[in-house]
């Protein structure tokens, strides 16, 4: 059987219809937790990069309603919202964000189709998305205006609905090589208030505990004291100035803001915060330390060939550590940069940060937490406000 447009649309709408106002867990006898469809879902929870947060399998014959609506909120410009397929993944649909814009990708009878458009959605506000079927077209409407339309007319005739439909939220169930447009999958975003269909079957998840969606948010990266983001520093030898900048309320932070280490060695440089101390921020380089009490929200560190300097808001240096360590010159070339924790000799993290970093920049460019190569246990693009 082919996947006609009514079948596809039912898949899109069903996944939205299972989203509601509270997630309650139970067992299903298969080692997975069952989550009520009446839930507010946080999509950015740690897991394998492309693995869905929740998923469900339903009989197509049980579906009677083909209209759907839900709300999405995010500052993240990229990531998977939901996925649906038939024929064990031969025909599939993915809704995601691409540079903040809605993107739909479809595979039908081996033909790939992608469309991106509509308004940007990563402004941190709740947006209402509505999906509907209009003949041979699937129409996505955001906040009642600017529809995004996808149309396809298969050669074979429409057939009665039969078989099963697999649905997934926050991930996909096919090989990523099948996608027409590649993107970073995990999204720091929330979905709520799905009003769809007549089915009340529970979703399944492998997660023991579901992360919360904060009531109000602001741009930044929130570290709840459970993990860190690790990057290959790859900044080259320090023959020119390398600049690392942080924005945030340092008096409200606790733990390691960042550290830099080379493989198999202890960190050579790290920056920590202690909100219980009068002098709240400490920079350590080797055996040397600088203690500061930032009066503002910006802290700038410059790595020169012979010194590490710290600036607070103004361009004038507020403190400096002369450098003679022989390992300093290639620290950025072969080392790892961790944000939100202290990397040890065994490359595991400790002293995790609790607090919000509103912005992080290297050489004047924003650092995207989604580019970290580890599972982070942080909110990559939002902080509780």
Report what the structure shows.
- The protein is mostly beta strands and about 375 residues long.
- It has two domains: about 5-215, Jelly Rolls (Sandwich), CATH 2.60.120.200; about 220-385, Sandwich (Jelly Rolls).
- The chain is built from two helices and 33 strands.
- The chain has helices at about 5-15, 330-335; strands at about 25, 35, 40, 55-60, 65-75, 80-85, 90-100, 100-110, 110-115, 125-135, 135-140, 145-150, 165-170, 190, 205, 215-220, 220-225, 230, 240-245, 255-260, 270-275, 280-285, 290, 300-305, 305-310, 315-320, 335-340, 340-345, 350, 355, 360, 365, 380-385.
- It has a six-stranded antiparallel sheet, with helices on one face.
- The protein starts with a helix and ends with a strand.
- The model is unreliable at about 1-25 (pLDDT under 50).
In short, what is this structure?
With 385 residues, the protein is mainly β.
């Amino acid at each position: 059987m082919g996947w006609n447009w009514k079948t596809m649309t039912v898949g899109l709408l069903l996944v939205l219809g299972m989203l509601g106002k509270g997630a309650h867990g139970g067992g299903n006898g298969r080692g997975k937790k069952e989550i009520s469809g009446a839930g507010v879902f946080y999509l950015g929870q740690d897991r394998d990069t492309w693995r869905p947060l929740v998923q469900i399998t339903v009989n197509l014959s049980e579906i009677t309603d083909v209209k759907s609506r839900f709300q999405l909120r995010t500052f993240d410009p990229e990531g998977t919202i939901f996925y649906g397929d038939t024929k064990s993944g031969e025909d599939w649909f993915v809704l995601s964000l691409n540079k903040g814009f809605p993107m739909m990708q479809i595979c039908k009878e081996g033909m790939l189709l992608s469309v991106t458009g509509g308004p940007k959605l990563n402004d941190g506000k709740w947006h209402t998305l509505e999906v509907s079927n209009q003949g041979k077209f699937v129409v996505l409407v955001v906040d009642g205006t600017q529809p995004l339309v996808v149309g396809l007319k298969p050669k074979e005739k429409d057939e009665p609905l039969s078989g099963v439909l697999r649905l997934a939220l926050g991930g996909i169930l096919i090989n990523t090589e099948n996608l027409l447009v590649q993107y970073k999958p995990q999204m720091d975003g929330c979905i709520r208030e799905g009003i769809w269909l007549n089915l009340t079957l529970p979703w399944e998840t492998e997660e023991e505990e579901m992360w919360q969606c904060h009531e109000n948010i602001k741009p930044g990266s929130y570290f709840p004291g459970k993990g860190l983001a690790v990057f290959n520093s790859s900044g080259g030898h320090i023959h020119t100035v390398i600049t690392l900048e942080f924005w945030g309320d340092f008096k409200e932070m606790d733990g390691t803001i960042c550290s830099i280490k080379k493989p198999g060695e202890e960190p050579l440089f790290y920056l920590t915060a202690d909100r219980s101390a009068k002098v709240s921020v400490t920079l350590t380089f080797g055996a040397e330390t600088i203690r500061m009490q930032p009066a503002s929200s910006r802290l700038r560190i410059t790595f020169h060939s012979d010194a590490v300097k710290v600036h607070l808001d103004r361009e004038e240096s507020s403190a400096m550590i002369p450098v003679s360590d022989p390992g300093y010159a290639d620290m950025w070339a072969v080392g790892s940069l961790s944000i939100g924790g202290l990397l040890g000799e065994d490359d595991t993290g400790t002293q995790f940060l609790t607090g919000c970093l509103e912005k992080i920049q290297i050489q004047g460019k924003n650092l995207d937490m989604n580019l970290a190569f580890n599972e982070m246990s942080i909110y990559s693009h939002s902080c509780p406000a």
